[in-house]
Write a structure and sequence with these properties.
289 residues, alpha/beta, two-stranded antiparallel sheet, 39% helix, 24% strand, rod-shaped
Length: 289
């Protein structure tokens, strides 16, 4: 039994006419008859009652018509989806990202992906205790946006952009861009920042920045969640240092003052990934502002 034989049967079951069916499927009437007879012989079931004038489904034929119609529709759909996956237009892709890009870059990126790959299903992951490298190598994510380039033999990385880090202060704070001449002027300020003892890239960047400026912040609250930090700064509980991207969160009652220190954004993916969609996503990421 073949899928093609079942399709011939379903069309004949609809037309109930050998000549019309043969014309519809582009084969001769004798070939169609042989295909149907072979199907009946293999199954040991009579599917049609025939005479010189009429073709009629048997009760068994009616049963198979109803069930095979649904099966073939589902099979055709699966085939179409598999073809789209092979062409790189449909499938499932998991993406991990740092919270700082959630307010501008990530929405713009998703808009580009949705416009160009509308059938693609995406899963978004904002990791807190596992590195983007580990997520990629463990196949828990397919695309990883990160603030540092992942240096691993099995991972490819591409730098997308750079932006400054900023001192974030309440709107009525005394500090302005003009008045900030030296970070040591903030020695008496209360800081709300990522824990400097942590191994995350941003914590490492802050440590290096403070060491370079011979500055030790007076940290009162440690947090890795930029959204929470912005809310605490807005309430006047302290000041912080965050990537410029957080400015697009539209948080009220805070101001951003750029520092002479930049942070990058990379897109990372597994080398030689069989999912062709990955390369398309990487290409589209270059179009995002």
């Amino acid at each position: 039994m073949t899928i093609q034989q079942i399709k011939y049967f379903l069309i004949l079951a609809s037309e109930l006419h050998f000549w019309k069916t043969a014309e519809k499927v582009y084969i001769s009437q004798s070939s169609l008859s042989r295909q149907i007879q072979a199907l009946e012989s293999e199954m040991g079931i009579q599917l049609f009652e025939r005479d010189k004038r009429n073709v009629k489904l048997t009760d068994a034929g009616i049963f198979l018509r109803d069930h095979w119609s649904t099966m073939i529709k589902e099979l055709d759909q699966v085939h179409r989806q598999a073809k789209k996956i092979d062409e790189g237009t449909l499938g499932f892709v998991s993406i991990s990202y740092p919270g700082s890009i959630a307010f501008k870059f990530l929405p713009n990126f998703l808009e580009v992906i949705n416009s160009n790959l509308p059938d693609l299903k995406l899963e978004l992951i904002e990791p807190t205790d596992e590195s983007h490298e580990a997520l990629l190598l463990n196949y828990n994510t397919d695309i990883a946006f990160s603030r540092d380039k992942i240096n691993h033999v099995n991972i490819d990385s591409l730098k997308l952009n750079s932006e400054p880090i900023c001192v974030v202060v309440p709107k009525n704070h005394w500090l302005t861009e003009a008045s900030l001449n030296n970070i040591n002027e903030l020695k008496n300020e209360k800081f709300i920042i990522a824990g400097l003892h942590q191994t995350t890239f941003f914590a490492s960047l802050l440590r290096t920045f403070f060491e370079k400026n011979n500055f030790e912040p007076k940290t009162i609250i440690e947090s890795d969640f930029g959204g929470m930090i912005l809310n605490l700064v807005a309430k006047g509980l302290g000041i912080s240092i965050l990537p410029y991207s957080y400015q697009f969160s539209k948080s009220k009652n805070v101001r951003f003052i750029e520092l002479n220190e930049n942070i990058d954004l990379f897109i990372n993916w597994r080398k030689n990934d069989p999912n062709k969609t990955i390369n398309k996503i990487v290409a589209f990421s270059k179009l995002v502002e």
